[in-house]
Amino acid sequence: MNLYNLGYRLFRMPWELGPRKELVELVTSGRLPAGRAIDLGCGTGANSVFLAEHGFDVTGVDFAPAALVKARAKAAEAGVSVDFRRDDLTALTGDHGVFDLLVDYGTLDDLSPARRDLYVRNVLPLTRTGTRFLLWCFEWAPRRFDRWVSFLPIAPGEVAERFGAHFTIELLGTSGAPQPRRLVAGTAAYLLTRVS
């Protein structure tokens, strides 16, 4: 957490890319109508601000205070209201309520397997039947190097294993066949829909 906070305070992080492509396409096409949304691991708030600009009632959650300072400034500059909260997605505090849309760009895949279990337990109560969940992640079969640096991407099939009992799962797209010689070997985006 301290490294993230320091990074947000001193630098522009590599994932600060503005509102993400899949989210923009789903909202502007009407597939995701305005409603109550939560941005899980919102960082500096680009996705949160985009959603608020498109009529969503948005909560943004992150554990890095420096990210939230930037996010609040971004929302103020855009003239939108977003409820930014500091919290830990593996141990949520307070009553956040339920949402029509959950968005996660690169938070779940940043957690250890045990903390991913906690994440799922904490995120499920934020949903109800019909809730949509846009999940973007690094995804490939973990390599020896990944284990050595203690970074485990989402393994193929892991999204279905973790969420399949509660959601229907649509693969929106991938970066293509994994490229094992690249540092980032692959990515995937999913749209999940909560079932009863």
Structure overview:
The protein has one domain (2-194): Vaccinia Virus protein VP39 (Rossmann fold), CATH 3.40.50. It has helices at 2-10, 21-28, 46-53, 65-78, 113-123, 144-148, 158-163, and strands spanning 36-40, 57-62, 82-86, 101-105, 132-138, 167-174, 187-194. The longest helix is centred in the middle third of the chain and has 14 residues, at 65-78. The model has no long low-confidence stretch (mean pLDDT 89). Helix 1 crosses helix 4 (65-78). Strands 3-2-1-4-5-7-6 form a seven-stranded mixed sheet. The radius of gyration is 16 Å and the shape is globular. It is α/β, with parallel strands linked by helices.
SSE layout:
Elements: H1 2-10, H2 21-28, E1 36-40, H3 46-53, E2 57-62, H4 65-78, E3 82-86, E4 101-105, H5 113-123, E5 132-138, H6 144-148, H7 158-163, E6 167-174, E7 187-194
Parallel strand pairs: 1-2, 1-4, 2-3, 4-5
Antiparallel strand pairs: 5-7, 6-7
Helix pairs in contact: 1-4, 3-4
Placed side by side, the strands forming the largest sheet appear as 3-2-1-4-5-7-6
CATH topology: Rossmann fold
Which geometry do the CA atoms define? globular
**N-C termini distance:** 35 Å
Tally of structural domains:
1
Return the structural class: alpha/beta
How many helices? The count is 7
CATH top level label: Alpha Beta
Low-pLDDT runs of 5+ residues are none
Major beta sheet summary: 7 strands, mixed
Let me know the CATH homologous superfamily: Vaccinia Virus protein VP39
Helix percentage range: 25-40%
